[in-house]
Amino acid sequence: MQLIVITDAEVIDGETAIINELFNAGLSRLHLRKPGGNAQQICALLNQVDAAFYSRIALHQHHELAQVYGIKRLHYTESARQQTTPALLQSLKSHGYTLSTSIHDLALADSLTAFDYAFFGPVFNSLSKPGYTSNLSPAFRLDRHSSKPELIGLGGITHGQLPAVKAMGFEGVAVLGAIWNEPGKALQTFEKLKTTINTL
Question: Is the pTM of this model over 0.90?
Answer without folding.
Answer: yes
